[in-house]
């Protein structure tokens, strides 16, 4: 029974560490990566704008349910590997140069957005993907960092390149 105060004290110390770390770490994270693909911008844009096909080519999305437009914007509910489910809204779609999607479920401990910019270059196109994440709860932010939830956007760009038979050279 001498171990109970020791374990309790350890858990309390760990909880205090997470709380304090969350209070001093930034609540925003932005990650930007660029890839060149041997396809015109419209081809890459077409792949990304077809949300219903995501489960066929991206490893993280298991299921997509189209919810219908909301104020003229495409809205879908996506189920992810690991059990997460999120409502994602296309907030900007300018063929073939720009696509922006936002995940922001009420009550969620974080919101996330993805901005894609497509530019024709050297017989193909560059795709610049910027992911922005904002955490509402500092404790969740620390847990997300410890568990590796803050993955860079590179794996998603690699999957896009693979759809066109390209080898990803991500910068």
Notes on the protein architecture:
The protein is α+β, with helices and mostly antiparallel strands and 171 residues long. 32% of the residues lie in helices and 36% in strands. The protein has a single domain, classed as 2-Layer Sandwich (Alpha-D-Glucose-1,6-Bisphosphate, Chain A, domain 4), CATH 3.30.530. It has 5 helices and 7 strands, in the order αβααββββββαα. A 7-stranded antiparallel sheet has the order 1-7-6-5-4-3-2. Strand 6 and strand 7 form a beta hairpin. It starts with a helix and ends in an 8-residue tail after the last helix.
Could you give the topology of this structure?
Layout: H1 3-24, E1 28-37, H2 41-49, H3 54-57, E2 61-66, E3 75-80, E4 85-94, E5 98-103, E6 110-121, E7 124-135, H4 138-147, H5 154-163
Antiparallel strand pairs: 1-7, 2-3, 3-4, 4-5, 5-6, 6-7
């Amino acid at each position: 029974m001498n171990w109970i105060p020791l374990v309790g004290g350890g858990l309390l110390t760990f909880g205090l560490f997470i709380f304090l770390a969350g209070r001093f770490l930034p609540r925003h994270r932005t990650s930007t990566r660029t890839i060149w693909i041997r396809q015109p911008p419209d081809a890459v844009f077409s792949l990304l704008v077809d949300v219903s096909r995501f489960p066929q080519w991206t490893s993280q999305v298991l299921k997509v349910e189209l919810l219908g437009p909301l104020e003229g914007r495409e809205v879908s509910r996506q189920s992810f590997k690991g059990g997460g489910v999120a409502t994602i809204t296309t907030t900007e779609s300018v063929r073939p140069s720009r696509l922006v999607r936002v995940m922001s479920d009420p009550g969620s401990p974080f919101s996330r957005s993805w901005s894609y910019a497509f530019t024709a270059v050297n017989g193909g196109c560059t795709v610049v993907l910027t992911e922005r994440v904002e955490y509402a709860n500092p404790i969740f932010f620390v847990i997300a960092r410890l568990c590796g939830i803050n993955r860079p956007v590179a794996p998603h760009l690699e999957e896009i390149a693979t759809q066109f038979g390209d080898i990803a050279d991500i910068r």
